[in-house]
Design goal:
single chain; about 90 residues; six-stranded mixed sheet; alpha+beta; OB fold (Dihydrolipoamide Acetyltransferase, E2P)
Length: about 90
């Protein structure tokens, strides 16, 4: 099993992927991308997240495409989401 698949399985476990501080790993679905829309948007945590809500590792923003799944780290205050990894299609 790939490491991403193992992480996905772990994220589905009740109480998993939290730090006890409110920070949490979760998956999101890219709904807008730079090439087609001029901005990035993600649906996650039952919220439409815009670029104001998202942080990206260097160069990652340009490579995100509509339809991709992303692994996010939600901040403890639930005000910011960091994109850690992208996965094609989803």
């Amino acid at each position: 099993m790939s490491q991403v698949a193992e992480l996905a399985r772990a994220l589905d476990s009740p109480g998993a992927a939290t730090s006890g501080t409110g920070m949490k790993l979760l998956f999101g679905h890219v709904t807008k991308d730079i090439q087609h829309d001029g901005e990035v948007a993600v649906q996650a945590d039952d919220l439409p997240l815009t670029e104001d809500d998202l942080g990206f590792a260097a160069g990652l923003r340009q490579g995100v495409e509509r339809g991709d799944r992303v692994l996010l780290l939600r901040s403890a205050d639930r005000q910011h989401y960091d994109v850690l990894l992208t996965m094609e299609g989803g």
